[in-house]
């Protein structure tokens, strides 16, 4: 069973000691923005699952064996913050993490985030996406994934946390305001090292 951290204040000292952080949650929820903010505040190298492991140019999926080998090599490194839910690689990532930050915002916020992302980046490759993968309109399958995330994926996350990293500290952030407050509090509140 994961050990849920009660809030930002309790999370600050854990963040200050963490060398490896997973940021997980539904697409459109703000994981990448939060990860980049935490990366700069904590001086941790930022890793995007989409950019670094999942996708090849032209929205081609990387072969699973190659993907897992890349993930295994990256998680073996001493310091990182990794953005992406990808439950199929939790067995590699969770045992190496010091903290999980779970962006657990309502689906309407995720859908709004996706809408804003598409509106601002349509036809261009975002910084946290693989080269050759320009932002496109979401298909029905992707929208269904977001709509059903809490019901279908969240129980799987809880199961994998308990299976691969019992006792792992997990900070749940339930709003964009919480994410902004966390990054703002790190401005001088955490002593890294």
From TrEMBL:
<dbReference type="GO" id="GO:0016301">
    <property type="term" value="F:kinase activity"/>
</dbReference>
<keyword id="KW-0418">Kinase</keyword>
<dbReference type="InterPro" id="IPR052922">
    <property type="entry name" value="Cytidylate_Kinase-2"/>
</dbReference>
<protein>
    <submittedName>
        <fullName>Adenylate kinase family enzyme</fullName>
    </submittedName>
</protein>
<dbReference type="InterPro" id="IPR027417">
    <property type="entry name" value="P-loop_NTPase"/>
</dbReference>
<keyword id="KW-0808">Transferase</keyword>
């Amino acid at each position: 069973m994961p050990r849920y951290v009660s809030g930002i204040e309790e999370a600050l000292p854990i963040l200050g000691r963490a060398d490896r952080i997973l940021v997980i949650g539904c697409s459109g929820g703000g994981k990448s923005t939060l990860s980049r903010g935490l990366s700069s505040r904590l001086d941790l190298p930022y890793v995007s699952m989409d950019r670094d492991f999942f996708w090849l140019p032209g929205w081609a999926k990387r072969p699973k064996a190659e993907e897992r080998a890349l993930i295994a090599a990256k998680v073996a490194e001493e310091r990182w913050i990794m953005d992406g839910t990808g439950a199929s690689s939790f067995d590699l990532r969770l045992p190496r993490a010091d903290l999980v930050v779970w962006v657990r915002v309502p689906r309407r916020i995720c859908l709004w985030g996706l809408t804003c992302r598409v509106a601002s980046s349509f036809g261009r490759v975002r910084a946290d996406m693989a080269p050759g993968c320009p932002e496109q309109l979401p298909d029905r399958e992707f929208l269904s994934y977001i709509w059903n995330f809490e019901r279908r994926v969240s129980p799987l996350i809880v199961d994998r946390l308990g299976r691969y990293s019992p006792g792992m500290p997990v900070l749940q952030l339930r709003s964009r305001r919480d994410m902004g407050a966390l990054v703002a509090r790190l401005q001088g509140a955490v002593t890294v090292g």
